[in-house]
Structure formats: structure tokens, C-alpha cells
Amino acid sequence: MQDIAYSDQLSAKRSALQQLWADTLPASLQDGYTVLPAPAPFGYRLRMDYVCSDDRFGLRVRKRFYAIVDLHECHLIPRSLFPVLRDVYAGAREQGIPDYNVYHNTGFLRYLVARRNVRDEWLLSFVTAEQAYAEQMAVAAQTALEAGAASVWWLLNPRHADLSFGEPVAHWGAEYLPQYVLGRTLHMGPNTFFQNNVEGFEQILRYITPYVAGAERLIDLYAGVGTIGICLAEHVKQVFAAELNDESVALAQHNIRLNALEGRVVVVQADVANLLQANRIVQGSAGDVLVVDPPRAGLGPDVCALLNDYGPQRIVYVSCNALTQHIDCQLLQTRYELVAAQGFDLFPQTYHCEHVVILERRADA
Ligand SMILES: C[S@@+](CC[C@H](N)C(=O)[O-])C[C@H]1O[C@@H](n2cnc3c(N)ncnc32)[C@H](O)[C@@H]1O
């Protein structure tokens, strides 16, 4: 939506969200309902996945999977970074590294993925379809380090599925990239989820802090590398976090040690539905506040039913897809009422928007 004024983008998001939630928001919340603007409407993204295909380096055309726009500038990351990445790509091609054909599923270099932190240090991943060209890859990695990358990874994705993640083959420079959130340092890896707009996400963490502060236990479900639990740990007695992806769990454990929070923050590797089904977190539920931050698909009916059974006092639901969050909230109404809601525009120039709702267990439920 880069051709639409940012103020118009914001009002479009606000009215879409207002319409969606009109039937669920209590009248007292409708008037003051807001979408908080992004701290920076351009240059904010911390991760960009650039496709390398048929001498093109850029992004896919929306809904036309095989069409790649050959980019010469990108406004979603700091302007000075894109030409550096493009040069690294060009240098790799000059080394004789072939790129990929998305249509025929042939070739070698599929993606260059850049991740950066708020201090503009960056990590670069080369995602390839095969484990070949080792010498040339080493030269390309060295070029990236000389261009300023703090960390370079070679990831292998030999599958047909067009993913910009993969099995690590090698890395050069630092193993992880530090990220700085509300005064905490968290390490990110090449394959693990991390919030894409940290300044925006800090606004969310500040917004939810009063709803979490003083809890006996903060239950952080869909925890990624532990960002929410670790950043809010100082406000609660204990944090219990759960995450499915084993690389993220390992990094969450590493981040707990990095922040000297051993014993105070615990993370387990688990599927949220299985965890709730097995009653593994129910003990001590009276003083629990639960934070959920699921993927775009939302919690789904099974997890909502299990949460209704478990019944923590408060649920803080952070979502990158207000549509599925809305459906989930209808299901959670069995025991919960919505007491606060706010949009956060973490994704300017796109139609995406982060949405947070606070649900309180009803006195009669
Ligand atoms: C939107 S991210 C949120 C991460 C984290 N809360 C943060 O702030 O960085 C969703 C996370 O849920 C994890 N996940 C997806 N399905 C899951 C499941 N069934 N059980 C547990 N975690 C899951 C993903 O691996 C991902 O790390």
C-alpha cells in the first residue's frame, strides 16, 4: 500500500477492525477504540526474504507466485541496506552460483534472507536447493561479512515447498544476532520466529504490562524464542512458556540464561493443545495470567475449548490475524468477557495489522 498516504492506511485499518469487532466490543469500548500508528511507517522491517530467480532479485507479485519483481530499492528496510544485499547477490552470481527457477523447480540459490536488529546489525541467510558450490558459497559469505553482515548462514531447502527456511549447512561470523527489546537482549537464529517490528512490538508489551503485572504465573503460549515471557518476567513471580518449534525452544532456553532468568522463566517444548489436554499447566491456575500469540491460523476450536476448561483469570490474546482472533473470541465467550482491545499497526504499507484483546473470566463462569 505504498501508494496510499499513511494516515489513510491507518484509518482504513481502524474502520475494518471496528466493523469486524462491532458485535463483540462492549459499547463502552467502541468509542475509544484505536489503532496505534507504527513508530516508523518505512524502513521498519527486521526480516526480508528476497527471492533469487532467473536473474531477478526481489519479491513475488501478489497472487502471481511465479512472477518476481526485480527490485532496485526497498523501502521496508533501511534504504542503505538493500543495495548492499543486492550487491551480495550479484557477487554470488559472478562467482558462478546459479539462482533458482521457481516454475521448473530447478537451480540452486533460492533466497537471500536478511534479518537485522534495531542497531542495524544484520544476519544474512543463503537458502539453497542443494548442498553444492561449497567454495563459491564460502567466497559469497566472505563478501557478505566484508559488506557488514555480523552473521552469515547457509540453509538447505531441497524440497519442492518454496520455503525460505532450511537445514543449516554452515555459518560464518557470529552464530546468532542479538535483538534488543525493552532493555532485554534476545538472540535470534536464522530459522526462528521473531517479531518483525520491534519498536511496534514494544508498544504492545507496554500495553499488556498492566494486565500481567502482579500475576503469580505468566503462562506464555506460542512463545517463540521467549520474547514476551522474558520481557515481562520482572512484573510476575514466574513465567511458564511453551513453544512447538525445537530450534525456538533451544534459543528460548539460551535467552533465559542470557538474561539470568533461570528458575524464574521455564520453557517447554510442546504443542499447546497437547499441553492443555494433558493438564500440564493447570496447577496454581488461580493466579495465572495467560498470554497467547498464535500463528495466523489462530487458536482454533480445540484450544479455545481447552482454555475454557482451564479457566485462567485473564487471557491476553496477541494476534497478527484479527479474523481468526475474532472467531476464537466468540468461542471463548463461554467463560470470558472482552474488557479491552486495541490495534497496533506493526505492518505499515501492508494490509496486515496486529490486534490485542484482553479477556477476563466472568464472575459467574
Ligand atoms: C506469532 S509467533 C509468536 C512468537 C512469540 N510469542 C514472540 O513474541 O516472538 C507464533 C509461535 O507459535 C509457535 N507455534 C505454532 N504452532 C504451535 C503449537 N501448536 N504449539 C506451540 N507453539 C506453536 C510457532 O513456532 C511460533 O514461534
Q: What is the gist of this entry?
A:
By secondary structure, the protein is of the alpha/beta class. Helices cover 30% and strands 30% of the residues. Strand 13 (217-221), helix 6 (227-232) and strand 14 (238-243) form a beta-alpha-beta unit.
Structure description:
- It contains ten helices and 19 strands.
- The chain has helices at residues 6-21, 27-30, 81-94, 134-146, 198-212, 227-232, 246-258, 272-277, 300-310, 322-332, and strands at residues 35-36, 47-53, 56-61, 64-70, 100-101, 106-107, 109-116, 122-128, 151-156, 167-173, 177-181, 184-188, 217-221, 238-243, 265-269, 288-292, 314-319, 336-344, 354-361.
- The protein has an eight-stranded mixed beta sheet, sandwiched between helices. Strands 4-3-2-7-8-9-10 form a seven-stranded mixed beta sheet.
- It is globular and about 70 Å long.
- The mean pLDDT is 94.
- The structure holds S-adenosylmethionine.
